[in-house]
Amino acid sequence: MNTPEPTAITPATAASIEAAAEHLRAGRLVAFPTETVYGLGADATNGRAVAAIFAVKCRPRLNPLIVHVADVEEAERFASLTPLARRLAEVFWPGPLTIVARRRPNSRLADLVTAGLDTVAVRVPDHLVARALLLASGNPLAAPSANRSGHVSPTRAEHVAADLGHRVAMILDGGSAVHGLESTVVDATGSELYVLRPGFLTAESIETAVGPRVRRVFATSSRPLSPGQLARHYAPKAGLRLDAREVRPGEALLAFSAPEPPTSGPRVNLSPRGDLVEAAANLFAALRSLDQTGAERIAVMPIPDTGLGEAINDRLKRAAAR
Ligand code: TXA
Ligand code: MG
Fold it and tell me: Least enclosed by CB within 10 Å: which of 24, 49, 59, 322?
């Protein structure tokens, strides 16, 4: 007779939060409560851990993720906040507001967190367990909602368990997420604010705090409503040739697995042992470094379209189609 699998749900206590922090430091995933919805957290400085988020959620796209921090000082280590952004942080953090700011060069954040963009989305959650976990882990945490792609966002630990079960190291139970709606994402890189994703915090309350300079990008017909599409995507200058089996003159090679086709030009292998999680973690840094060689085109070896390969190929196809 089969015994039921033990649940990964663990009540949040000082000891379990410390154990969760240890999982995060080791590159594993931990689901945790925030005031909006439960998040699927990974160490935002660990590319492989961030790649595992996409694999576990079965996300077909490598969209940029929100980075959670304990306070504004921690945010400033990798995000360059304008005076307006700082004012927003003062009024609304901790709370359901995500601020998109310029990413500082040489920050420790994994490139995959921002999908290679030079901006980063950051927020300070207003939840005791989330905050304690952030302090215990000592690192910023990338955390989308802890559900499978296409499913509704979880507001209870049981929802997370039903959706992700044992694909996460631990599910910290901190009761119901009170708001039940994601944070509002605001682009604060310039002198006007753009609401990129409507969320729990209304544009009206933002305007009340900072004055009438809030634009609702999601409400215009020329821009799509779906959240991931609103982010400008990192696009290499070089063209991409997909499913390449050989390297032509003037091309750089983006390889996957082995053996690689011969070339004397620049080359990067996303994962010599053919590991898709490793490949996703390396993707944006690889594109950037090959682009910087000045190569006219990047020949991309075939990447299997299974698991995380689907998201990697989606990204490559969109870069190739420009
Ligand atoms: O309430 C929430 O925000 C939840 C809880 C767990 O904190 N988190 C959440 O995270 O919803 P996530 O990673 O799924 O949200 C990503 C949103 C998307 O709409 C994405 O396009 C936007 O943030 N985003 C992330 N980075 C961005 C960037 N650099 N520029 C523009 N938008 C960005
Ligand atoms: Mg979600």
Answer: 322
Q: What is the pLDDT of residues 253-266, one digit of tens each?
A: 999 999 999 999 99
Which contiguous run of DSSP H or E holds residue 40? strand 39-43
Angstrom distance (rounded) from CA 124 to CA 231: 20
- Relative to beta strand 39-43, strand 97-103 is unpaired
Annotate 116-184 with DSSP letters as a single string: T-SEEEEE----HHHHHHHHHH-S-EE--BSS-TTSPPPSSHHHHHHHHGGGSSEEEE-S--SS-SPPE
What is the DSSP track for 250-298? TEEEEE-SSPPPP-SS-EEES-TT--HHHHHHHHHHHHHHHHHTT-SEE
Q: What is the pTM of this model?
A: 0.91
CA of 254 to the centre of ligand 2 (A): 31
Best of 98, 200, 215 to mutate for ligand 1, by most ligand atoms within 8 A of CB?
A: 98
Those residues whose C-beta lies under 8 Å from the C-beta of residue 17, and which sit 6 or more positions away, are: 129, 132, 133, 136, 172
Q: Any idea which of 42-51, 202-211, 248-257 has the lowest mean pLDDT? A: 202-211
